[in-house]
Write a structure and sequence with these properties.
By secondary structure, the protein is of the alpha/beta class. 46% of the residues lie in helices and 13% in strands. It has a six-stranded mixed beta sheet, covered by helices on one side. A six-stranded mixed beta sheet has the order 6-7-8-9-10-11. α8 links the parallel β1 and β2. It is globular, with a radius of gyration of 26 Å.
């Protein structure tokens, strides 16, 4: 029975991690989950047991997080992806089990967690950043950390906070158990460990307060940056599912219809005139460059509302391959700018190893043949009060650090996230993606505008707060004034440096922990490091297990 306690704890911690994400938004459970995992891995266990604990944590987390993957294609892709991602947490479990044998184990736990999260966000097929720890903190008090050290730093801070709280708790129990005993060198080390753990927790709590003071969003009440008025049009789709594109003309008609209603409201004074209108991804899957009917509809809508329309469409390359594009349609000049999606989605917009994967699912051939675009990550929108430089991260791209960062580096004053979630039904996927946009807003100090075909569209302030949002599967129009910022956060200026530092620390700690256990380190011990006190391969009593995490 005792042997089942720790695997069960790891699995339960994974489920708690899932509950930290939208739509439940119990952000504090991410801290609890990582703290529990730190306790499990901090015991005196073998590396393979650490890997097993990590794998069980991953299953408890990813299986309930990703059911929208199989919404219309069955459970196989969903469960296969969850198993692959759980293999990453198994790798983390193995690494952390070794690294946490060094002093200050919470630090190495957090660095190892950040390392493996970075790996799965890059490999294979460009990576899968969904479910990054940072995206669980959109409603939590640690969110301001993103403006200092980015999404990676927010992940590291959350993991460090959770592991440190758990460490202090375990150290407190150990101190209480040893209280009657006389002072020894070991008890002195224990006291140092308690103090170090408490200091770590206090620093984790103080860092977001510092971020609030220095982030550009915190100055909005004092300063008055220039603004622009945007209108989001969510036209809705005839039906959800993989076949929604079969009704592509209807989808375009729906967005034109809602824009005409907006124009009527502007004409009658019920709604202030927008400086530009944002339509979602796939609002016109009929290319206006190749279809005169689509061109006429979009032009009529832009003229009616008397403002540029920024819309998602499908454009065809010279070789016949499609590109997922966002174009700026001016009522007087037509297309004035264009963005082609840089980071396209594997198994959706294209299928790697098509011949291999079609052996497992008849849906494989439904994947697209899109090609990634190049060029700038921003579009220039001509408005009445001057051009607005808007960064674009289309749907899947918002999960990647480099997408929003490139936009702001290129002068983006506001971030646009046109998205199409109609292929995933009324699922938690939309809210998970919305949380990513909230993190990006704080990370770069920019307002973020999310336009979805069937919901949820939203307007997000630079402080990460959702100012307004639409419902699911319903036509809607949202309007708001957006601050146009040109200053940058510390996170933007640091770029990928926090991730590089965390990865280097994690790798160095892992290699050093291994070196400590070699014959060389046994024969030539490093001063101040007690190699003789390394963990045993297993522990039989509760007190020994508690001792292990502090070593």
């Amino acid at each position: 029975m005792t042997r089942l306690i720790w695997p069960t704890t790891a699995l339960a911690a994974g489920v708690a991690m899932w509950a930290a994400f939208p739509p439940r938004n119990l952000w504090f459970l991410a801290v609890v989950a990582l703290g529990l995992l730190a306790v499990v891995l901090g015991r005196e266990i073998r590396v393979r047991d650490g890997a097993l604990a990590g794998f069980l944590f991953g299953l408890g987390f990813y299986v309930p997080l990703l059911p929208w993957i199989g919404e219309y294609v069955g459970p196989l892709p969903w469960l296969a992806l969850a198993a692959v991602l759980a293999a990453y947490t198994a790798l983390f479990g193995a690494i952390a089990t070794v690294s946490m044998r060094l002093p200050l184990p919470p630090l190495w736990f957090a660095a190892s967690w950040t390392l493996v999260e970075a790996l799965r966000s890059m490999f294979p097929f460009g990576g899968f950043p969904w479910g990054r720890t940072a995206f669980s903190q959109a409603d939590g008090p640690l969110l301001p950390l993103a403006s200092l050290v980015g999404a990676t730093g927010l992940t590291f801070g959350t993991a460090l906070f959770g592991a440190s709280v758990a460490w202090v708790f375990v150290l407190g129990i150990r101190s209480w158990q040893r209280a009657p005993r006389p002072a020894t060198e070991e008890s002195h080390a224990l006291s140092v460990g308690v103090v170090s753990g408490v200091v770590t927790v206090l620093l984790a709590l103080a860092a977001p307060l510092l971020a609030i003071l220095v982030t550009p969003a915190s100055l909005d009440r004092v300063l008055s940056p220039s603004t622009t008025r945007v209108a989001i049009v969510q036209g809705n789709v005839p039906r959800l599912g993989l076949e929604f594109n079969a009704q592509r003309r209807a989808v375009l008609d729906y967005h034109v219809r809602e824009t005409m209603k907006l124009a009527e409201d502007v004409a009658t004074g019920r709604t202030p005139a927008p400086d530009f209108v944002l339509w979602p991804e796939n609002a016109s899957d009929i290319s206006p460059l190749d279809n005169p009917d689509a061109e006429a509809e979009i032009e009529a809508a832009a003229k009616a509302v008397n403002a540029p329309i920024v819309l998602g469409t499908i454009l065809i390359n010279d070789d016949g391959s499609p590109r997922n594009s966002v174009i700026v349609w001016d009522p007087k000049r037509g297309i004035t700018d264009r963005y082609d999606k840089h980071i396209i989605q594997p198994f959706g917009e294209y299928l790697p190893w098509r011949g291999f994967f079609r052996l497992f699912s008849s849906y494989a051939d439904m994947a697209g043949t899109f090609t990634p675009g190049g060029g700038p990550s921003v579009v220039r929108i001509p408005t009445r009060s001057g051009p607005v430089i808007a960064g674009v991260a289309t749907c899947w791209e918002v999960a990647f650090d480099r997408a929003a960062r490139a936009s702001v580096d290129q002068g983006a004053q506001v971030l646009l996230v046109p998205t199409n979630n109609a292929t995933f039904g009324l699922s938690s996927m939309t809210y998970q993606q919305l949380a990513m946009s909230q993190v990006r807003a704080v990370e770069h100090g920019r307002s973020v505008v999310v336009a979805a075909t069937s919901g949820v569209s939203a307007i997000i302030g630079a402080d990460g707060m959702i100012e307004s949002e639409s419902g699911f599967f319903t036509p809607a129009t949202l309007t708001a004034h957006l601050a146009l910022r040109s200053d940058t956060t510390i996170a933007t200026r640091l770029g990928g440096l926090p991730q590089t530092i965390a990865v280097v620390i994690a790798v160095a700690a892992f290699l050093f922990a291994i070196a400590r256990r070699t014959r060389f380190s046994q024969r030539f011990p490093i001063p101040g490091m007690d190699t003789a006190g390394d963990r045993r391969e297993s522990a039989d009593t509760t007190s020994e297990e508690i001792d292990g995490i502090t070593r």
